[in-house]
Design goal:
The protein has about 190 residues and is mostly beta strands. The protein is built from one helix and twelve strands, in the order H-E-E-E-E-E-E-E-E-E-E-E-E. It has a twelve-stranded antiparallel sheet with strand order 6-5-4-3-2-1-12-11-10-9-8-7, with helices on one face. The longest helix is centred in the first third of the chain and has 12 residues.
Length: about 190
């Protein structure tokens, strides 16, 4: 995707208003909740928890090679992979099969991931998403708990990260989807 096309896609994402998402396809495996393909892009409103500031964050799939995807967010590019048993970001599973309540796995730094219950709908940023599942990541070493909500056929729609300082001060960062584009259609099989 050329830079001009990427910028146009991101501008359109920012213009997305309140809308009802189309019916989600029936999701059965992890990749159904994280659609990655050339040109896919997401924009998020991020409440930083610092002084009430909000920022715009974007992610875009900039290159694909089979089941490997380069995803750019700001100045950082990360590698995502579809594996037979889940979706991996930077060599750590972010969603693992079977995607059902109670499924757990261990990540880096002793982090524990747990799949929450499926929600038939979830409203985020004025948009209604269908068939949503949450994944909670708890990291004892950093005392950070992150919950990520994935919508079938859309990807990540919301993230909250919470921690408490050694002085007992709580902090929360919250990202909510503003808009998205699923990019080029997958090749015919």
């Amino acid at each position: 995707m050329r830079r001009r096309d990427l910028l146009l896609s991101l501008a359109l994402l920012g213009c997305a208003g309140s809308r009802r998402a189309p019916a989600a396809p029936r999701a059965s495996v992890a990749r159904d909740w994280m659609p990655l393909r050339t040109g896919a892009a997401w924009s998020y409103d991020v409440q930083t928890g610092i002084g009430g500031d909000n920022v715009l964050s974007t992610l875009a799939v900039v290159r694909t090679d089979g089941d490997t995807f380069l995803v750019r967010g700001g100045s950082r590019t990360e590698t995502y992979e579809y594996r037979p048993d889940g979706v991996v970001r930077e060599r750590e599973y972010i969603l693992k099969d079977p995607v059902r309540e109670g499924t757990t796995w261990t990540g880096r730094d002793g982090a524990t991931y747990t799949v929450g219950p499926r929600e038939p709908t979830r409203t985020v940023g004025g948009q209604v998403f269908r068939e949503v599942v949450s994944v909670r990541r708890e990291t004892p070493s950093t005392r950070i708990t992150t919950t990520t909500w994935f919508a079938a056929g859309v990807g990540v729609v919301e993230i909250t990260a919470r921690t408490e300082s050694s002085l007992g001060t709580a902090m929360e960062i919250r990202s909510t989807i503003r808009g998205y584009s699923l990019g080029d259609p997958p090749p015919e099989e």
